[in-house]
Amino acid sequence: MATNDVVLLDSLLQRVGPRYGSDASSPERFELFCFDQMLKQFDPTYDELSLGWVDGGNDGGIDGFFVYLDGRPCTGNAAAIASKLRPQIHVRIVSSRTSPRFEQQPLDSLHSSLSELLDLTKTPAELMYPYNSDVLRQRARFTAAYLELVEREPVLTVTIDYCSRGDASQIAPNLRSRADALEELVRKLFGRIDVHCSFVGATELLQIARKQPDYSLRLPFTESFISREGKNFVILSRLSDYFDFISDETGQLRRYLFESNVRDYLGQGQVNKDIAETVERVSTDISNEDFWWLNNGVTILCTRAMVAAKSLAIENVQIINGLQTTETIFNVYSASRPASDQRALLVKVIVADEDSMRARIIKATNYQSTVDLSSIRGLDKIQKDIEQHLEDHGWFYDRRRNFFKNQGKSADRIVAVTYLASAVRAVALGDPANSPRQRAKSLRDEAVYSKVFNPKWNLSVYLASLEIVRAVELALQQRKKKSQLLSPPIRLVHFVAFAWVCLKLGKSRYVPEDIVSLRKKGPTTEEVKEISRRLHNFTRTAGIPQRGRDGISLNAAFMDRFLESELLSVTADNKPMNPSGGSGDS
Known about the structure:
Layout: H1 5-16, H2 26-38, H3 46-51, E1 64-69, E2 72-73, H4 78-81, E3 88-96, H5 105-117, H6 133-148, E4 155-163, H7 173-189, E5 194-200, H8 202-210, E6 217-220, E7 226-228, E8 232-238, H9 239-246, H10 270-280, E9 298-302, E10 304-308, E11 311-315, E12 318-321, H11 323-335, E13 344-351, H12 355-366, H13 381-392, E14 396-397, E15 414-415, H14 417-428, H15 446-452, H16 460-476, E16 478-479, E17 485-486, H17 490-505, H18 525-541, H19 556-567
Parallel strand pairs: 3-4, 4-5, 9-13, 14-15
Antiparallel strand pairs: 1-2, 1-3, 6-11, 7-8, 8-13, 9-12, 10-11, 16-17
Helix pairs in contact: 1-8, 5-7, 9-11, 10-11, 14-16, 14-17, 16-17, 16-18, 17-18, 17-19
């Protein structure tokens, strides 16, 4: 390792550290930085990094436990999203230390933990070590996905990364032997598995962090091409050449090429079954059946394209249509690349520089009966207006996946579309009973979407909803250990936020624009904790059963009773309750 690599890494962490959250301590920032680099092939969002962040008490020496299914975070319903045959399950275990050297203790901890956690014969009750809930959640997701897909012959990869600021080129023999033993242990648990334990030091972390996505690529074509004025092109590209085009040097799918695609991969649907069957019918005699006869092809948007010999040199590549075809080709060819396949794919390459024109092309090429309107929500004017308004006030609205993460914006200032939608439903629409279920799937419903994203509202409705919910969330945070925060249950956050708005406005029935007046006025930590205390006390005095992680059986009827009781204590001038516990006690 070059002597200066540790200095350069520390300098880089100093610069990029704040993007992982303003409240994160140095060890936490190093952990998240390592996760981001180890998962770079999956282009993770900040939310996805947090999903597998299991560090804390009883973590078994595991800082990051990530489960990916066909390149996407595995969160359930594996059968529906996995590819037809040989789905790719990738488990990534990360142990991170800020130490300037590699030590044996982390490997010993992983050896003990993984011998249990990856043993599918053991139920959670049979595990010897009392792992924390985050570790058990990720284990459950992996176990469920693997067992659910076992008949499809899943391709299982387990990667164990030990990251530190040390020198990975000078690993002591005892550490190398321990890593080999760890690989062998995991290998014996599964019949077919690719397992690798790696040491990632300062030099390797620097190299990965410096590597940027390559958006300028060459795509070979067969025969001639069709073009007007030598600018836009229609070509036929062999399936094997297209597979190379969408794969990086490590053989992984270049997922960043799909940032402008309005749809995600639909997994095990009939459309993709048909595409897979077509791809698998290898043919060297294209006069009999060529692939492009049976497939609509793909559309690439770029800023420049030019012919270079028998290929197109394309700059700023974005595949805006044909994601299902692309991923299916990748899955089939990754599992078993045909020795000789002369079939070709139809590819349209469109050059467009202006954002407005690009948006129109994206929308037009995806406006099909098989795509519901929710898929292209990010192109709506209201979404762009919200993005601009939030950015004017220091927030970054993630309507375009990882757009702001790639610009280095802080994680705690980036707002997911579903997060904002649920906050609006809880606070602006006064519906905290249903707001936690405001997920991407629900926004596909036109009635739900129009209700949450109303272009007639003052844009500050969205800003106020975000500020109120985020303030409540921060006030209710608890520490898992000295250096890491535990997010409160989102249902509790929404009910407390709604109650605070009602108490501030002096009424439980209001219109969305009413909350604009509450911008920059709280809630304070004292108010949040007081409302939370009252919620719990009210359940006890009212004889309402307490259950769940938030300790309260929260529903609309309960909230109506609570607010009716609390609002009786609000004075005529709508003065809110005394956060110190004076007026308003029932």
